[in-house]
Amino acid sequence: MHCIHPRSRVYFSSESSCKRSLMSFPLKLNGKLLGVIEVYDKNTPSLVFTEDDISLTEHFSNIVACAINANKMFYHFHDLKTKQQFLDCVLLRRFKEIDNEAVKSVMNCRHKHNFQRITDFRFDPRVIPEKHVLCVCLTIFESSGLIKKLKIKHQTFVRFLLKLKEAHSALPFHNWTNSLLTFHFVFICVNQYNLIKDKFVTVFEYFTLLMAALCHGLDHRGPTTMFEMTTGTVLASLYSSPGSISQKHHLSQALRLMTYPDCNILQQIDNEEFYKFAKLLGNMIEGPQLQILTWQIAIRRCKNWKNC
């Protein structure tokens, strides 16, 4: 649509804003109209739009259409992610936001945490004061070099430990204390018998073992009791059989917590390593592999049975 002297034409002079030259072109992608762009009053050397201008607008419209579509997809996935985070909060019943002061209190703790015989089988982790339990867990991971090797941010890992503790149920068993005792036992087995040094266990497997120990009772709903186990009820069979609903729930909640934005301790590993980690973690949590493995390791590495 061209008009060198717009006010000489009745049609243009009737408009509130007269344009010397006007060109509009659609923004289409996969047959869908995403918008329309109008350009007008072209400057010198040519006061009118040429065939070359039309050719350029076709390429420009494709680029802009792709950019608009990518932007819409970004907001769509952002909305889905927000809904997923809300769902995570609902599914983790004891899940709550951790304030920065709680994270700083663990990271800036000045206690030496040099509890005697902590690397001994006879040490009872329950003697550790409640306010220093997470500090000891953090020290174990740091002393093993796992945080540095897996490139985990300290603040992210501390936030993960805080949320992990809160996500455990307040039950007589399958609680945070039980997970802490299991975690300490795995730590003792691997370090007492030099399993990493002797290449019985890799660093990645050691990290997964510790995670399985901390998460094997995560968000336990307490449906199974010793009475049901002894009498062999249907409920006991459902929740205590290998690969049962309860173990799958623990695994699901553990992976959900590990990949939550504020405490994503796995963000630095690639997709292949994440798949291996999730599969190995599932084998340890869903079946009796964790218990069998730790006892086999202890028996195999013990030179004198009386000292075990």
Automatic annotation (TrEMBL):
Pfam families: GAF (PF01590), PDEase_I (PF00233). One of its GO terms (biological process) is signal transduction. Transmembrane segments: none annotated. One of its GO terms (molecular function) is metal ion binding. Residues 96-308 form the PDEase domain. InterPro entries: GAF, GAF-like_dom_sf, PDEase_catalytic_dom, PDEase_catalytic_dom_sf. Keywords: Hydrolase, Metal-binding. Its EC number is 3.1.4.35. Its cofactor is a divalent metal cation. Belongs to the cyclic nucleotide phosphodiesterase family. PANTHER family: CYCLIC NUCLEOTIDE PHOSPHODIESTERASE (PTHR11347). This is 3',5'-cyclic-GMP phosphodiesterase. It comes from Nezara viridula (Southern green stink bug). The lineage of its organism: Eukaryota, Metazoa, Ecdysozoa, Arthropoda, Hexapoda.
